TrEMBL record:
Residues 49-71 have a biased composition (Acidic residues). The keyword Hydrolase applies. Residues 413-675 form the Xaa-Pro dipeptidyl-peptidase C-terminal domain. Residues 37-80 are annotated as: Disordered. This is CocE/NonD family hydrolase. It comes from Paraperlucidibaca wandonensis. Residues 37-48 have a biased composition (Polar residues).
Amino acid sequence: MKIYRYSFIALVAILISACGGSEKNIKYNKFSELNSQQEVEDSLNNNPEDTDTDTDTDTDTDTDTDTDTDTTESLTPIMTTLGSRHELSEVYGNPAVESDTAWSSYDPAPTFERSKSLPLQFIKMDDGVKLAVKVTLPSNSRSVNEGPFPVILIQTSYNTSVGSVVPALGGANPYMTSHGYATVVVDVRGTGNSQGHWEAFGEREQNDYSQVVDWVVKQSWSNGNIGLYGESYLGITAILTAQQNQPAVKAVFPVVPIGDGYRDVAFTGGQLSPVFLPFWMLIVTGLGAVPLEAILVNPINGVTALLNHVLGAVANFQVPVILKGLLGEANTTTDGAFWAARSPLEGAYKIEVPTFIVGGLFDLFQRSEPLWFERIKDTVTTKVLIGPWTHIEAIGSSGLPRDGVPPLNQIQLRWFDQYVKGLPVGAERLPNVTQYVLGEERYVTSNDWPHAQMRPEQYFFQANKSLLKDMPSQFVAKWPALQAPIFGLCSQSLSQWTFGAASALPLPCFDNDHINQKSSVVFSTPALEDDLYINGPIQANVWMKTTALESSVSVRISDYDPATGKSRPLSNGLLSASFRAVDENRSRVIDGIMIQPWHPFTTESVLPVKPNEPMLMQVEIFPTSAKIAKGHSLQVSLSTSNLAQGLQPVLSSLLKGVLGLATFLVGPEHPSSVVLPVVPNSALAQ
């Protein structure tokens, strides 16, 4: 039975052609008409086991070589959005509203000379827990506060006391204060000077957000208009608060916010993050456990809060979550209610205020930052800026101003001046999408994401380890790979999943995949005859088998420069074999080719791994923007692990596959490939 969406796409294509458009063939994946991953495997398992002498050349369904370039480029691609837990993918709607293509400066003169911090205060929640709050007001030399003021609200897990010293962790920005904004910083429950137990964006914490907004509105120094701001955890609380639609909230400016807690970082590809999760929880616990100012204000309450924080970390949340993940506890290691509550993209449709997203090409939340733009651009004024940054670099907006893009605090001021103060300063005309393009080494603007001119181009793995647009010939290749959970430890992934902190080490593997490729099977395009501009998500379709009961595949995308011998990391993906099921009704498809798979990662979706039976691994590779220069090669590296990014749970998965031998398959019966989001080079000149 055909999947409805593919039939619909084909119907749309026919209608376009019938209405005067040029005829265009829709290209399907080899198994796009099968209902499920299991049907794919069942159909193959009815065939004899492939051998090295396999000469089957019947590839009629895949060898359509009609490459009428003019016809292809004259038609708008038929594309679907990426679905979510609660929404199916849909045929892409209207493009984003037109905006300026160039940036302009905005740096008005300050209106206040200094600031004044009020004593530590507490807000009582409806369950009796008290949250600590620090307020900073604009002030003039007369020591008389003007007001009331518009307010920037920040909610942090990193301790307001620390934020007073390091504003990125939860403090007032002097630039914003000097331009007339009061700043309110709140310790979320169970952290800093607040009472209660921390559970990282749990239901109870999210209930607190609206009560904090209500409190701010009632203060004499507040004019009732609020802009939500924050970086990392603070950006996540901002965007979750925006979804509650408090009338006082007028705009939101989250920097590196998460989108999907499970897929982005905690269990990428169904594997526990052994680097990020412990590192992050250690930071929250270390910075947020000690209520320094609360102890000074009221020693008894302060010590009680400290004991609650430590007890909560050991018995309630931090330590239990990590242990459950390592041991394979189902409610933690599979996608469900726990992770849905910690995936703000699920509530993106609720946002009704202008939103400016800041992200990084090597950020922890690289996957979701452009998705935020796609999800909300149709309902609210939305902009996205993505730099060449790790998490830490994005928080510091490293390298700005550059290529006309102003410093981040000027962008934030313009956003809030228009939407919080109500000033006509042209924020709605700022470029919709601004991305740093690796290889081009500059920021490039566009009107939409995914890029309006993006087309999927499928490159097939060949028996000689080349990457070509042609289907693999009758030659069959089998590339063995040891299943060991140690590969990728020294890689760009280590820098990425330590927030960028590891990049301070003088190791060459952070900007060169050459070391990782020694333990990988590497496929390369021939030296390019022209520049290749890719912008968007990438999908690898890897056929493999294993001698064990579990396996995984790590896929790295690199830009190889023959002049230097370096393979520059661009992006990567990871997938456990037992989680290889794909929900096609939630996956992104462009012109009939899947380019971003949606894996359910639920207990019900787990597929058995049968020794020595071929499996199709459709791997989601996080979106990037890069130009592979003429003369360079695009490389795809396959291995069985990426320890810096993910580790299979010890008891439920790791022991099933740690002694196995995987084999990557290439040939007409197993057409492994990578699907690239290719944009015309002319777009770089716009």
